[in-house]
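call fold(seq) -> tokens
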Amino acid sequence: MNTPGGVPPWMALLLTGLAGRPVGVQPLAIDQPSARGILVNDRLLVPAAVAQDEDQREGRAAVAHAAAHLLYSLPAQPTQGLKPMSVAVIAALEDARVERLAMRRWPGLRRWWAASYTSALADNDLTFGAFLARLAHTLFDPATHDGNYWVDKGRRLFEAQARTDLHDRAAFRHMGSLLANDLGQMRVRFEPEQYRVFPAYRDDNSYLWTFPERNDVPPPDAQSLEAPPQRTTWAAREEAVGPGGDQGSGPEEIELGRQLLPEWDRRIERYRRDWCTVVDMFVVAPDRAVAATIALPPPAPRAASARLSRTRQLRRQTEGDALDLDAVVEVLVDWRLGLSPEPRLFRRPGREVPPTSLLVLLDLSASANDTCDDRGTTVLGLEQQAALSLTQQRRADASRLAVHGFHSNTRAHVTYQRLLDFGEPFDARAAGRLAAVRARYSTRMGAAIRRATAVLADESGTRRNLLVVTDGMPSDIDSFDPRYLIEDARMAVIEAGRHGVRVQCVTLDAHGESPVRRIFGWRNYRIATDPRALASHLQQLQARAAAA
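ret:
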């Protein structure tokens, strides 16, 4: 028999018994097939279809899942620093984690939930909701083999952590961020208005989160909850940052040329010739980016004596401070032979050869849009600030400096952006290009290092250095072997050394020491555990390279 509100009394009794404290069950005000339950601290709101289910299957499953959250989840966790896609993936892992814990305590719950996983999921559906549904299926039944790389990776990470400690919420949150980043690099788009938690018995996960936009809003009345609260919030956040985290419309990009470069295949231990297409792009800074750039102080002029080298003499000059004896002898010979003598009889000090040519190569993949502190500072913002600081420091130096960036969209399109070239004045427009650059797509590092090495090969400096700034390891959506692009990048560094280019790296990935050491060698990398110290690490590496 149902209560006047339309919810059978057994649901509240069952939820209270499982949770170990009084919890009410009430009907959800909206009645739509896509509606999901909403869990708050002292009550569960269920859609009408669940409350009126005659065989009680959906009701039991929904109540048991809500009880698992009440027992094992921390409610109202802050979402600062998380993209909407990351929030959804972390919540899906949390659903699986609490259900696994509940089934350890009450093994019979598996039968209540298993009925929702009987239908097969289409493997050709590559939407965000389909990926999470397939992941939920494999996590509920570890014997299921999906075959998709991302789904199997999620199951592998989850099971490894489950064997270690199912109660470590921080580990599962980190896992969710990694999987969300992979989806972003796979170009999977998150549509908050279309996404629904799978399976239908699960609540909408609003119990888990506190969104900054709603911190000052009191808990709504049960009857006024017309839709899952995070729907509108996620939509606003997605609109603010754009698809995949892009910050609105970016600067204009002009294609300068294309090169076909090889790539090392570790499986056959051979180069694949003309395998990657690298596209040189010139970034045109929008007027708003140039206007927003802080006025740059003029570079400190160097004294003429500092720019000239007495050890480097320019011979056969039309004027100078001493005679060029070899030229004088040739003039006397020509005069005796009746030929017109060459009037270049002098020598003078020449300009010194720049001691160092440094190219700073910025990783502009989509993961650079991730925030790294409570103030919302992104990795891209820190890269821009560090490059700006290093550039301003060296404006009055004889050394030459360039700042380039890269990202990739499979081997067919590796974008190589020319933000500041060698010999180019660093004015407000150059600073505007650096400030307006966007982070997108993936990280095919080997191809970018080869292109940067070719740029440095044209430099006449006695030392040529390449400094890579990245927040992660090489990856791309057309490479499923995690070691493939790491080994290719390692070979690109070896090739650069053969051309007289020293390659160093500063990485923000505190967990990536092993692969970064594999790529760059023992003495040629630094791990910036504090992202705010990135500029300092860049300057120290540059100084060490210049003194080597």
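Residues 40 and 207 are 6 Å apart (CA to CA).
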